[in-house]
Model the fold of this input.
Amino acid sequence: MKQSNPHWKERLAGQIPPLLASEIDIFENEIALRLTGKIDEKVFAETRLRRGAYGQRYDNGQRNDGIEARKLAYGRADLTKGPNTLWDAPGMQRIKIPFGGLNATQLEVLAELAEEYSDGIAHITTRQDVQLHFIHIEDTPSVMRRLAAVGITTREACGNTVRNVTSCPLGGVCRDEAFDVTPYAHDCAQFLLGHPDTQDFGRKFKIAFSGCETNPCALVRIHDLGCVAQVRDGKRGFKVYVGGGLGTVPYQAKLFDEFLPVEELLPLAQAMARVFARLGEKKNRNAARMKFLVVKLGLEEFKRLVLEERAALPTDPRWTTPAVLPEESPLHPGALLQIDPATPGFTTWKSDNVYQQRQEGYATVTVALPLGDLTADQLRGLADIARAYVKETIRTTVEQNIVLRWVSESDLPALYDALSALGLNAAGAGTIVDITACPGTDTCKLGISSSRGLAGELRERLAENGAAADDAIRQLRIKISGCFNSCGQHHIADLGFYGVSRNKSGFAAPHFQVVLGGQWTENAGSYGLAIGAVPSKRIPATVTRITARYVQERQSSETFQAYIRRIGKAECKLMIQDLTEVPPYTTDPSFYSDWHDPRVFTLGDMGIGECAGEVISAIDFQLTACEREAFEAQLALEKKDVSQAAKLAYESMLHGAAALLTWRKLGYDHTPDAIVERFREQFFDTQVFFDPFAGGKFAQYFFRAHERRNEARGEESAHRLIEEAQLFIEACHSCYARLSLQPAKV
Done:
C-alpha cells in the first residue's frame, strides 16, 4: 500500500466549504470520544452511518481469516495498516455521487484515496455511488476532507436519511427523453441534504429521476419517490410514484400524481418527507420504509396528508431558485465515423457500448466495469481520457458502469485504443454479460452466498460461449444478491438470483434461489418470484438451460417475460428440478465451497449415515413440502386464483412452523392458533428463530399472515404474501441448520 500523500493538507487549504469543514471536525471529535468510551456505540453507529461509514465483513464469508483470506481470494496488495482500535476490522466508506456526475479531478482524488487508505479498488454501486472498502474509521475524516475539497460529500450516504438521488446517465443526450432531468435531480439532492425535515426518519428514503417511461436507466418504480419526465401543453412536469422498494419483500411504487409541475417538485418532496418522518414506523425497523406507510394508510389517505402538509408549508425561496450546474458542451466538433477500423474487438464494442446521442455526430460511451470495480490506475487513466476526448462529462450508472458523454463519433477508434491500454475496453455493456451484483460475502455482513464470485464466473462463461452475440438473449439482464435483501436487484431481473443455504447431513452448501418473471424495462415494470433453490455451483448450468430453452422455443419476437408467462412457473420449476439436487459431501465436496473460495462452507460435521442410503430427517421432507406449497401458491396466482394463492402461502408458513415444533419434540395442539402460540413461545419469544441479521422479521411475516388469514387479498397483496412465505421457509431452513448442532428436547 502506498503511503498517504504528505501534501494533501496544503492542497485543501481554503477549498472545503466552511459548514462542511465544521461537520467533519465534529465527526473527528466524535471518533475520539468513542475511542475513549464517552459516546455509546449505538449513538455513534448512527453518527458514522450518516456520514457514509459502514462496518463490513472481513472474512470473505466463512471464517475470521481477515486479511489473509482477502489476499487469497483476490491476490490484492497488503491491506494492513496496524491495529484498529474502534472496529475489529476496517470498514467501508460510501461516497455520495448525486445523479452519478463526476469530473476528472474527482476521479483522480478517488484514485489517491483508493491507494492510500483502501485496497486500491473503487467500486461503483447500483445507486451510482462509489464505495471504498477496508477503510479504517480513524482515517475517514481525512478521506472526507479530501473529497469535500473537490465537491464531494459522504454526508447521508447511509443511515436513516435521504440516500443518493439517482438519475438517467443519458439525461440531456437521450433520444427518448421528454426533457433532461439532471438539474432537477441535482436540485432535489442539494435541497434535501441536511434539511431539518429529513433528519427524523425511521429508515432510509430513496429518490430517482427518469427522462422517459420505457427505459430502465433510473428504475423509478423501485423507489420511495420516483419522478418520470412529462411535457403537457409545452409545460414540464413529472409523473410521480411513491412507496416502491425491493428489500426482502418488494413493493411496486404507486402512482401519486399524473402530472406534477416542476416548480412543485421540491415542496412536494419536503411535504412527503415531513409526513414520512411524522407517521412512519420508528420502533420496528422491519416496517419503517415509506412503502409500509403507504400501504398502511392507503394511497388516497397518504396523498391527502401530503397535500395538506404541502399547503401548510411556508414558502422557501430555494424551491424556485435552481442551483447552477456547469453547462455541458462538447470538446471536439461532432463528426460521424465513416468506416470502422480493423482494430480487433472495435466493432463489437461499438455495437454494445456506444449510444448515438440525439445530437448528431456525438455518442455516449459506456465503460463496462466487471463487478463494478476499477483500479486506482484505471481511475487516473479514465480522468486523462475524459480531458482528452470530452469536457470531463462523466457519469456512473445503476448498472455499475461509467459513461463518457459528448464523444465525437470520429474519436471513437482513438478512444477505444486509450481504453484498451487501461484494460477498460470490454464489450457487452447492457447485454447479458453485464451482470449486476451486490458485494455479497466479500464484504457484506448479511451475505450468505458469493454473489460477486458467481457474477464473475457467469460473465466469463457467457462471454466464452458467445451468449452476448445471440440476438434472442443478448438483452437479458442477470442480477445477483448475496442474500434476500435484493441489493443486487434480483427481483427485477430476467434471471435473478439471491443467496441462501441448505443443510445436508451436517454440511452447509451455498445455494441461490432462482427468480423468474422480473422486468427491468419500463422503469422496473414488474417483480419476479423464486421458483427453487439451486446449489451455487449449478447456477451456470441453470442459466445455460433456461436461456437455451428460450432460444429454442420462443415464438417469433416473443420476449423472455412473455415466454416465461406462456410456459408457466410449473414448467420452469420442472426445467431445473434435477439441478436442485446436492451430492453428499463425500461424493463431491466442491458443492460445499463457494465460487472462488476454496474453503469449506460448513456448519459442522454431524457424521455420515453408514447404511446404504443417507439418513434424511423428517423435517427435511416437511420443509420441502412447505416449499412445494409456496410454489403451488405461485401457480394459483398465475391462474388469477388469488384467494387460493393466499391460502396456500399462509399454509406453507403454518406447516413450516409446525415442522420445527415437531422436530424439536415440542408438543402442541394441531390447530392454527395453537401452532402460532406455541411457535411464538418456543421460537420467537426465546429468539431461537431470530436470523443473526434479520432478527425476528420473518417470524413477524408469519404472525401477520395468521392474523390476516381470513381477509380478502388483491393480486399484489397475494404476491407479497408468497414472497414472505418463501422467506419464512428459508428462515425455517436456517433455524433448523443452526439448531442441528444442539440436542433436541426429549
User: Anything to note?
Assistant: The longest strand covers residues 495-504. The mean pLDDT is 87. The domain at 616-746 is CATH 1.20.120.330 (Four Helix Bundle (Hemerythrin (Met), subunit A)). The first helix runs from residue 8 to 12.
